[in-house]
Amino acid sequence: MRPGRGLRATGWVLLPLGVLLLAGGLLLRDAYPGHRVPSESMRPTYEPGGMLYAERIEPSEVRRGDVVLVSVPEWGIHDGLAVKRVIGVGGDRVTADDRRVYVNGRPLTEPYVAGGDPVAGATFDVRVPEGRLFLLGDNRGNSLDSRYHQDEFPGGTVPSTAVKERATDSPVGSYAAFGGAGIGVIMFLVGFGLALAGWLTGRSARRAGPASASAPYVVG
Hints:
Layout: H1 5-31, E1 34-36, E2 51-56, E3 67-70, E4 82-88, E5 93-96, E6 101-103, E7 106-107, E8 124-127, E9 132-136, E10 158-159, E11 163-168, H2 172-214
Helix pairs in contact: 1-2
């Protein structure tokens, strides 16, 4: 076997594998992004500054009770995504008295709200248009949400297309993304190093060969 051929062969195997793993990791990273929670509006479910793991979804996949990440520049949030809970979907009637929130006349059980106060003094009666969502933060006393935009948009709702991601309790997707990308980078660098080392070894051998062949014999 020619000098360096084994190194080059191993390197050329690792290089494309590294690229594939890196590409797969980046695709997973896009499908399962992670974010730092930007505000107190979702306490105690998500603390500000904590990590929130999410998954990309289509607007048609949104359900009541989902915690979603939405793009709502019309609410004055121009940087990043807002984190809110879906309370009502198209066709729902969402109301609140001084004690509870109701959807289609049925009281919601909301153990996740901060301080056990699902209303925080804000009453409302909204019929959610088709293709739109009524969103509230879990920290009802400190959340910029649908309640405060009822005069600007239909019932303070947002289009379902504003939803970009849904929060998930599992970090597996994000971990797999980082792990795959990291391993891919390492494999690519190792493969490149082996291929380069093999090429340099072969080049050195080729240069040394003719010189050795032409060297005169010394008779003692």
